[in-house]
Amino acid sequence: MRKALRTLWRDERGITGLETAIILIAFVVVATVFAFVVLTTGIFSAERGKETVYAGLHKARGTMEIRGGVVVRATPPNVDLIEFAVANVAAGDPIPLDPDAVALRTVIAYRDSEIADPDVPYTTTVLVGDSDLLLEPGELFLIAVNPADIDGPPNIIENTRWTLEIQTPVGATIDLTRSMPGEIDTIMQLH
After folding, report:
1. What is the rounded distance in angstroms from the CA atom of residue 186 to the CA atom of residue 173?
2. How do residues 3-12 score in pLDDT, each as one tens digit?
């Protein structure tokens, strides 16, 4: 009988089962912590991605577009006026087009091979919409730039390539690049 009792006390099957249970619990805890870290990182990344998308949408919503061609009025061989129509993109934010505004105003820059003027005077005429000089969805404005008002002034003659860059307070910048034809007429539409 003593031999049987000694054998029972020396039997370590219960301890082995307890060690296995502890190891399994440790694996479960480590896996849970790892899963928590992965999920938290994924949620954080998704939120950052969402913020980036909303910022891009906000910037795109404030953009305007050129409607139609660019009309150049001239007394050959001199260009007297550059005109183009602008409209707000679908569901876009209002864009201020008051040339006399001090803050939050749209700036037009002129560039060619010889001159770069970062702030060109321009005039705005409302073609469709109210008269508040705030370009809102559904409205159409005509912007006119007189080359004589550009610092320099530029020598826009035959075969001259020039750019008007329209910089709005909200939204993308529009580059309006055109080339003059080989012969200047009184009224020309440049595409």
Report:
1. 30
2. 655 655 555 5
Q: Which tokens sit at 4? A: 């049987």
- Rounded to whole angstroms, the Cα distance separating 152 from 133 reads 28
CATH of 64-190, one of 2.20.25, 2.60.40, 2.40.128, 3.40.50: 2.60.40
* Residue-wise DSSP of the chain: -HHHHHHHHH--HHHHHHHHHHHHHHHHHHHHHHHHHHHHHHHHHHHHHHHHHHHHHHHHHT-EEEEEEEEEEEETTEEEEEEEEEEEPTTPPPEE--TT-SSS--EEEEE-SS-EESS---EEEEEES-SSSEE-TT-EEEEEE-GGGSSS-----TT-EEEEEEE-SSS--EEEEEE--SS--SEEEE-
pTM here is 0.69
Greatest CA separation for the chain: 127
